[in-house]
Task: structure prediction
Amino acid sequence: MSFDIMKGLKTTLKNMGKKPTTVKYPEQERELPPRFRGRHVLHRYENGLERCVGCYLCAGACPADAIYIEAEENTEENRVSPGERYAKVFDVNLLRCIFCGYCEAACPTGAITLEREYKLASYYPEDLVYHKEQLLEPIGQATVGSAAVWFEQPPPPDEAAQPVPQEAGVFDGSEASAAAVGLGTLETEREVWIVDPEQDEDRRPFEPQEQDEKREVAP
Ligand code: SF4
Ligand code: SF4
Result:
């Protein structure tokens, strides 16, 4: 028996009595670390309104281009969120997502958080594009999710306030707030929409809205 085989057997014998580091999933599951980031959840307020004000900040912050939003104006007859707009469509493509949490950090209203759901496997890629209907908390549920950690922290110093884009379309140094981003008067940049059919087969096709068509014909 060669020396190498002896060395290998020594390692085997050394580890034979040790507790295994693997678990028998799915019968057995590991305890997740406290800062684990799983599938996204969209939250509601206590009164049932959606926290999301359709501001696109999460989509803008996402380094993987995994979030697709179509915002719609609230009306008195159909008020969905407390802001001027709400997300009519909110898709997260989990095939692109790298679970970095930037979307959660960018959201001014605590509307989106990454929670502890990780059983996300599927045979079909389209199953991994999660739509608003799947992401949103059911009516009657109003949690803040993992954003609770921010409530437990002391408030940040004034100099750490984050600037947000204002009506002028530039970062003007104002503090982030739902009111600031919920203005709803800025025209949506066409680039925000996902229009490349080759790269984005799994997303909703871009259908020009009535106002887009008008804009195109305008001089
Ligand atoms: S977790 Fe990161 S990659 Fe995933 S949707 Fe949010 S910002 Fe994008
Ligand atoms: S940043 Fe928050 S409020 Fe804005 S679109 Fe994303 S989830 Fe909605």
Summary: The helical segments are 3-16, 57-61, 102-106, 132-135, 148-152, 178-181, 210-217.
